[in-house]
Design a protein that fits this description.
The modification Phosphohistidine is found at residue 56. This is diguanylate cyclase. The modification 4-aspartylphosphate is found at residue 312. It is an enzyme of class 2 (transferase). By secondary structure, the protein is an alpha/beta fold. The chain has four domains: 3-121, Four Helix Bundle (Hemerythrin (Met), subunit A) (Up-down Bundle); 136-259, Response regulator (Rossmann fold, 3-Layer(aba) Sandwich), CATH 3.40.50; 263-390, Rossmann fold (3-Layer(aba) Sandwich), CATH 3.40.50.2300; 400-554, Reverse transcriptase/Diguanylate cyclase domain (Alpha-Beta Plaits), CATH 3.30.70. It is built from 21 helices and 19 strands. The chain has helices spanning 3-36, 42-62, 68-86, 89-99, 102-121, 149-160, 172-178, 194-203, 221-229, 242-259, 271-283, 297-304, 320-329, 347-355, 368-390, 400-417, 431-438, 440-457, 481-496, 524-540, 549-554; strands at 141-145, 165-169, 186-190, 212-216, 234-237, 263-267, 287-291, 308-311, 314-315, 318-319, 338-342, 360-363, 421-428, 463-466, 471-477, 500-502, 505-507, 511-517, 545-548. α11 links the parallel β6 (263-267) and β7 (287-291). α3 (68-86) packs antiparallel against α4 (89-99). The two termini are 53 Å apart. The structure holds guanosine-5'-triphosphate (GTP). Guanosine-5'-triphosphate binds next to β13, α17 and α18.
């Protein structure tokens, strides 16, 4: 975020703080006046219950706006009223006189002066060092810092086959001169340049140590350890195992993507507090949606689709705990992490809230820095878990069941809007012999390499899944036969150009693909079967290439495919 943007956030937070003060001053006069009139009767009890709720809200929100002493006193006063609220009806009236004594009102009156004192000397507890981190596309770029021109050329050439845009530099100053905007990239650097790079990291916020991979001629423990000490994300001895290096770049960029951003929905009925959280979390690089009316929770969930839901507990007349239960009525939200953000301090109540449909509890008030770091960590975890459930562990691509769901969705979309989309089935050629000759681990590297290539070569809107062992499905929305054939032929060519090595032997692998156009079939399943049949046709006609189902039909093959 630019400095201007940061100043803007600070100004908005200051405005919220002023609004909070103005509201609280009005509430103080009103509530103190009412509590003074509370007699030992039913109307008096109602006033005390309202007063308790009001103090509870103040205790939770004041600290967030920087009114620490004020918030602590409000909390102490809330606890004074707690026994009345908690006790049996018969005892309540008798307790009133004891609780509402001179001491209670002296402390209640002190709230006004505490508010004024805190307002004078407390700074807005805003994040000082925010990061906006939503730049995964930039990670396709790899900056290569290698003084040896021959090695640099060879590596740049090999990595570009995996779909990376490689920019080579022979020195750190040359790299810095070319990247003045400091876009986030993966950096592959010869470890000899390590001492020059360290000061650069200290001064450039966009360069991240964890996105650096060192190359080294010396593969000793000491050198590897030194690289780890710098916080580097990878280490490769020379000569480089290129597929493994490409794989590491991919892993780093995926880890980065997971840790960047995150979607959080906040349900908080206090409007100033909700806006404060929104500004602070947004400043911390998260996408935020806030709702102050709990009745909107279901609609907003469906629209915003958050990674986590942050929910206040006391939102009279609603309870966050019951809302969490209600959210869980819908199977789709069973796995959504719900974190209570509440000023509730009673441990038993906290545990009971978590037991009834929530996942965790954050106590209010919480500092801005801590809120951002806790929420970010929860988002990363939520994304990792969601990914584990739906993504193939070897490649990170969609699993069989998910890709079939996506295909069904795309099929309906094409039907509804009369759009064109293609589905392709891809299968590695003679893959059994790769495993048999070089071992299963090398076979895994080949599978991952194809997955990475597909991720890079295809558009963001294309959908890729691992359908089976060495079989992949690709869905290409808004893509006709001619375009799909061109794209997949390009993938085939790129893939067959990758050089793998194992046991000092270099080898290449090819793939066969079949393509079908969704709209030409009566169901998504039938289109997939057709793509599969076209792929087998390619296997029987020389492999290493693409077959269109429609051309295969024209030449008389594939009569058996169901078209409905
Ligand atoms: N390394 C590795 N191998 C796998 C994985 N899943 C499936 N395979 C292997 O993929 C191979 C598939 O072999 P086949 O179905 O005979 O096909 P092929 O050898 O590729 O022959 P064609 O498809 O006719 O070109 C088998 O050896 C499986 O064990 C995996 O996750 N990792």
């Amino acid at each position: 975020m630019s400095n201007g943007g940061y100043q803007d956030v600070v100004a908005k937070l200051e405005t919220l703080k002023s609004q909070f003060v103005a509201r609280v001053i009005a509430e103080l006069d009103l509530n103190i006046g009412r509590l003074r009139t509370a007699g030992p009767d039913e109307p008096g009890l109602a006033i005390v219950r309202d007063g308790h709720d009001w103090l509870h809200r103040l205790a939770g929100s004041a600290g967030t706006f920087g009114f620490t002493a004020f918030g602590e006193t409000a909390r102490a006063l809330e606890l004074c009223l707690q026994p009345v609220v908690d006790s049996e009806r018969a005892d309540q009236q008798a307790m009133l006189a004891q609780v509402l004594d001179v001491n209670f009102f002296t402390r209640l009156d002190s709230l006004k002066s505490l508010l004024a004192a805190d307002a004078g000397d407390s700074a807005i507890p805003v994040l000082q060092n925010s990061v906006t981190a939503t730049v995964p596309e930039a990670l396709l770029r790899v900056d290569l810092l290698e003084p040896d021109p021959a090695l640099s050329r060879e590596l740049a050439d090999s990595l570009s086959r995996y779909g990376y845009e490689v920019v080579a530099f022979d020195s750190v100053p040359a790299f810095l001169a070319s990247n003045p905007s400091g876009g986030i990239t993966t950096i592959i650097a010869n470890i000899e340049l390590q001492d020059e790079l360290q000061p650069v990291f200290d001064h450039q916020r966009q360069l991240h140590r964890e996105l650096v991979i060192y190359l080294s001629r010396d593969d000793s423990f000491d050198v590897r350890y030194c690289a780890a000490v710098t916080g580097a994300g990878g280490f490769f001895p020379l000569p480089v195992d290129v597929p493994a290096l490409a794989d590491r770049i991919e892993q780093l960029s995926q880890e980065w993507e997971e840790s960047a951003g995150g979607r959080v929905m906040v349900v908080e009925d206090d409007e100033e507090l909700a806006e404060h959280y929104r500004l602070v979390l947004d400043q911390g690089g998260l996408s935020v949606s806030t709702i102050t009316r709990p009745a909107e929770v279901m609609t907003q969930l469906a629209e915003f689709r958050p990674d986590i839901l942050l929910m206040d507990i006391n939102m009279a007349p609603y309870s966050g705990v019951s809302l969490a239960r209600m959210v869980r009525f819908q199977p789709e939200w069973l796995g959504l992490p719900i974190v209570y953000l509440s000023s509730e301090q009673n441990r038993d109540t906290q545990i009971s809230a978590v037991a009834q449909g929530g996942d965790d509890f954050i106590e209010k008030p919480i500092s801005d820095e801590r809120l951002v770091s806790v929420v970010k960590a929860r988002c990363v975890r939520a994304r990792q878990l969601a990914k584990l459930a739906s993504r193939d562990s070897l490649t990170g691509l969609m699993k069989h069941s998910l890709i079939k769901q996506e295909l069904a969705k795309e099929y309906s979309r094409c039907q509804r809007y009369s759009q064109v989309a293609a589905v392709a089935m891809l299968d590695l050629d003679h893959f059994k012999s790769v495993n048999d000759t070089y071992g299963h681990a090398t076979g895994d590297t080949v599978i991952r390499s194809l997955a990475n290539l597909l991720r890079h070569r295809l558009r963001k809107s294309d959908i890729i899944g691992r359908y089976g062992g060495e079989e992949f499905v690709v869905i290409l929305p808004d893509c006709d036969e001619v375009q799909a054939e061109r794209i997949l032929q390009d993938v085939c060519d790129q893939f067959s150009g990758l050089v793998f090595s194992s046991q000092n032997t270099e080898f290449e692998v090819t793939l066969s693909a079949g393509i079908a156009i969704l709209g030409e079939f009566g169901s998504a399943e039938a289109a997939l079967n057709a793509a599969d049949e076209a792929m087998y046709h390619r296997k029987n006609h020389g492999r290493n290439g693409v077959t269109l189902y429609s051309s295969m039909r024209q030449t008389g093959a594939g009569e058996g495919v169901a078209s409905g």
